[in-house]
Every structure is written in structure tokens, then in C-alpha cells.
Amino acid sequence: MKSRLLLTGLVAALVLVVGIWVALDRRPPVWDHANHLERSVVCWRLLSERGMAGVGQIVEMSSFYPPLVPCAAGLLYLVFGVTPLTSQALMLVFLGLALVSLFLLGRRLFDAPTGVLAALLFGTAPFVVYSATNFQLDLPLAAAAIFTLLVLVKTEAFSQHSWSIGLGLAVAFGMWVKPPFAIFLLPPLGLVAWRALRAGGRGRRVVNLALAVLLGGALSLPWYGLRVFGLPIQVANRAFKQAAESGYPETLTPASLFFYPKALLPTFGLLAGLLFVWGFLALARQPAVRGLLWSAAVVPFGVFVSIQNKNLRYVLPLLPVAALIAAAGLRAVGPAWRPRLTLAVVVVSVLQVGTAAFGILPVPPWTPFNLPIVFSFPPSSLEWPHRQVLDVIVRESRGAPATVSVVPNFDYFSVSNFRYYAVRDGLPLELSRAWDRYPLRLDFIILKTGNQGPEFSIAKPKRIMERLAAGDPAFERIFPVIWEAPLPDGSVAIVRQRRLTPVTGVSPPALAHQFEEAVARFLEPYAREVEGLKIDLDYSPRDLLRGEIRRVLIEARTARVAEFARQGAQLRLGELRLTLEGVVVNPHRLIGSGEIEPLEVERLRVDHLVVAEQDLRTFLSGLRRLGGLRLGLEEGAVTVALAQPGPDVTGRLRLLTGGGAGPLAVHAEQVRLGGIPLPDFLVGWVFRHYDPAPRLAKLPMTVELGQIRVEPGRIVIADTAAPPMRSRGGTGRLESQGRKRQP
Questions:
Q1: Closest CA to 713 of 613, 641, 637
Q2: Residue (of 482, 429, 439, 434) closest to 457 by Cα position
Q3: Which is deepest, 95, 130, 388, 506, by most CB within 10 Å?
Q4: Domain residue limits, the chain
Q5: What is the chain's Cα-based Rg?
């Protein structure tokens, strides 16, 4: 009873701390925190508007993060409303689950006081306190990991049928929290399974083990089954490729190997870290529990040390096991010192919670490893003007849908937190990051001076801000400043709106001719060896001075296209005819420097196009990961054969003009793996990750294709309804100059 009262008091104290912190803090959620909150609001809206009919959209909400935690918050929103305290209440529920599981596991493996002490060490760890004030998936993952470990112990090496079923449910629960759950589950599960195979009654234990694994896998299948091939690629990219791009040190370098060990004391606690080291060694004298705790701690830690991407959140799920090992270390101390050390742990825990949550103790100017003694993140009363910025945009757009670019990637001023607030408040805004080459399809731009964010992520923001600082009159004429305000970090927030001001001192025909002359230069980064280029414009003279062109028709006999700046694979096209509708360019840029700066293209229609089979093969040979792909063009279909380690893949692809998710529909059929036919549902699961249609549908313009025909030796796109070119001679002299807009 005393242990339960102490545990209840610990939970109540942490609830009070987090409640006060949330009430005091006025900062916006940052990056992943904001992204998870955005998904929780989307889930809440789907549940409130569509109920169970929205389950399909919920499952598809993210390609990497399962929806359990965001949708649990969405359910709370239905009752308590969308507030910061509601979302953090869910984090406290998971924290409570972790503390109770730790207590029960400690009591089962050791005794009740050890269980209470383990819960105290984990609950008061500075990084756990910090995590309880942020809406992330790592604290729920820690709760799922220690809860599953408790259930695994209760199976008694799979001799208990009911607890084996419970383990299957716990496994599914953890997998629906976050994919890395498997890293924390498999080592202790493998150890217990090995013990079950060596124990008496092996047949019954094997059945229970299989039941747990099958049940957990079956319940996880609705989400993971759709991502069985795409998810491993994402995991590998996040672990290494994106980590390298972010500037993380290479694996096996000293900086990488010691990243987590040197952060042990600041994140786990001073005494907790020392007790963990002692407890880890002391477990050598306790063979009954050492294998379980060592496997649950050492193997996952080794996995995260070995990947290049490092973040303290990734190893948070190890802290419950670390707390149990630390509590075992105190238990191994001599009876004379144990009460004094326990009192010291309690005092230090109280102080480090106060420091972690509210900064009650000053941080020394110098510490070992240049890390603080205690990880501290006190609340801030300084408000960031996201609401004012969004109010300005909604007012200036008169409530109509608008597209917004958030240029900086500063933690408190980025697209993540702006998008969360827009989704939460139901604003008709589409927000994106800084643009690459052209500010295409943007109605508003949000900027800030000063710090733009982490260095690895701000190449585009820096380029944009440097260009504006150097002076860009053509850009400023089209995107004037409509609002400014100071920010808490000493910088200035800026909002610009696209306003098409007409150019003066030039006639519409002269401006049209200047546009024609600039087309070849504009195409140079994307199209070379263009032969027979012809341009035809359909415009209103008055609108053209504002940069608006009703229709642009482009025709060429041949062209070689690629992203030449990135040395991309090149594809030769023939008999090319394109129609661009609703074109908007910056007229001030055009008359000032002779450059085409596109601002909008409503629709791109491919009226005619021919790709020869040999040209297509040359293009595919230049793509990484597709070097072993061989194809052939026959009547109505593309035959493919992919040579790879192990059995080869063969099949046929049918290309159709899309009528659903995108302009192009690709259907795979007669797919075989090593000569064995694959079922259609499996082919669909795999092919959905390579289908170009969804990506084409996300382009900043509507893309339409003419009728697609696959013929022996070539692919043809032809639209018999396409309007003929009006200009048939020279290099593109215009015959549509001054044509009036039809009413």
C-alpha cells in the first residue's frame, strides 16, 4: 500500500509540473512536435465529420508514422477541445503507463521498493520531464516498450496462454505507436523465446509464442502491410542519407560513438546515471534477471549508436530499462548506505525536475563535454505572432483559398508551426517551404530577418534573403511588403503579397516579342538541342502588361530534356507540342533583365509527344537503382524485366491517361518473381511506392496528357482535339499579338 501511495504521489506531482509548464509557455510547437499535432487535428476532424468512414484516410495520413498517438489525441479533442493541455494530457497518460509498468516490473523482478525507485528515476529524468511537455511519439514509445517488457515477463517463457495473447496485443500496440518499437522488442523477445525452447513443455510454449507473434503481426498488418516495401527505404534514408545531409558525423567516428554516452547524465540525471553504471555491473551477480535487462538495454543502444542519424529522442525508450537497472544498482548497495543514498536520490530528483521544467538552478558556464549538467527547457511567456500573420493573410485574401510560402526554417517560425495553426483553425491556406528556383503559384510569402534555422536546412532561405538584401526591384514590385512586426528573438517578421502591377513604357506586342526571345534561355536548364521551336501566345494586351497570358503553345521537332544542373538522366523527345494555360510571369523581370520568371501556370497539357524505345532505354540506364531494368515496347503495353540479386522480376505495364489521382495511370500485370506469378493484391502493395501518378498530381499545376498509345518501338501521346499551331514558319514569330480576350 505504501508503494502504491508513493507511486500515486509521483504521478500527481508530474501532472502538476506539466500542467503549470503548459499554462506558462507561449511558444509555438516546433518541427516534428507541430507535425504530430497537425496530424492529431486532422484525425480529430476526420473522426468528428466522418466517423468510422474516415478510417481509410486516417491510415493513409502519414507514410512513416502510425496514427495511434495522434488519433488518441483526436479522441480527447472530441471531449475536451483542441488545446495544448489536452494534447499534453495524452502524454501524461503514456507517462503514467510507463511509471506503473516500471513499478510492476521492478516489483516482479526485485521487490516493491525497487519498483518505486525505478519509477522515480525515470519520471524525474530531465529529458523525460522535457518530453512530457512536448507532443512527440517517443514518450509513448517508451511506455509501450516497458509495458510490453512487463507482459513478456508475465508470460513466464510463454508458459501462460492468456499472457501470451496479451503479449500479442502489446506488440501490436507498440507497433502502432512508432516503427522503431521493433528494435526495443526483438532482443528480449528473442532471449525469452530461446529460453522457452529449452524449457519443459516446449510444444505448448512454442504454440503460445507463435500465437503472440501472429496476433501482433496480424493486428499491425493494416498499417504496415501497405508500407512493407516503402518503409524500409524511408528508414534507411533517415538513418544515413538524410543524416549525412544534415551534417551528422559519420558512423564509427568518436563524435558519433560518444554522442549518446556523454549525454547520459544531463538527460537521465546525475545520480541516476551513476547508479545505472553501478547497477549494470551489479546485475552480473543476478543471473535470473541480468539477461533480460541487458538484452533490453545493450542491443537497442548498439543499434542507435551504429546509425548516423542521432537524436536524444531516439534513445528515450531505453530510459525505463535504464531506470530499472539503476534501481537495481541502489538495491545492491550495502544496507548502511542504502537509506542515505535513497534520500539523496529523492532530493536530487526534486531539484532536477525543478531545473528541467523551470530552470530553478543556474547552469554553470562550463561543464564537461560542453553539455549542461541538467537538460533544462523552462517555459517562455514571449508570444510569437503566428495568429497575427495568419489573420493578415486571411484578411488580404478576403477568406479565399491562398497559397503561402514560409521561407525560414527557424524552430519557432517555420512552415511546421504555421501549417499546424492553419489546420487547427480551419483556414483555407496551403503552406509550403521556401521555393527553389521560382516563386510559383504563391499568393503570400512569410519571411524573417536574422537566423533562418539550422544551417543544413536553410540553403534556399539564405539565397532568398541574400537576394532581397542586395536589392531586387522586380521581385519587390510583384511581392510588396504588406505587414511587418518584431519577433521575440530580435528579428523582424515580414509578409509579402503577390500583386500584379503592370509595366509601363512598353507596348504589349514588344513585351510579347521579348517573352518569345526569352523562351530559349528559360528552357536551357531543362531542355537542350531544341530543334524547330515555335511559340504562339494568346493574350489580352492589357493583361499581358500585368504578366498574364491566356495560353502559350510550344512546339518542337526534337528536344533533349533533363535536370542538367543536377546532371540528371536525359531523355530525347520528338514531335513535341505543349499547351500552357493561365500563365503568369513577372513582367518587371522580363523588361528589366530579359528573364522569364514564372509565377503561375494553371494547366499544362501535353498534346503530342513521341518517345522512341531506344531513347527510353538510354534514359532508364542513367537512373540509379534502375540499372538492371530492361524494357520493350509492344502493342498496348511495356514489357519490363528487372535483374537483381536473387530472382528477377518480369511483367507488363499498361499506360493510360489518368482519370483519378493523376494524369497518368500505370497498371502492372502478369508480374512474376523468378518465374512465379505474384497475386494482384501483392503487386498493388509493391507498385504503389513506384507509381508516378501521385507525385504528378502534387505538381503546382494541373497536368493533362493526350491519349497514350504504346506501339512497337515507341510511346505516343496524341490529342486529336488539340488546337493547331498558328505560327508555322521561322523561329516562332507571333501571329496572336493583340488578340482581344473573348467575353
A1: 613
A2: 434
A3: 95
A4: 2-220+246-370, 386-497, 508-718
A5: 31
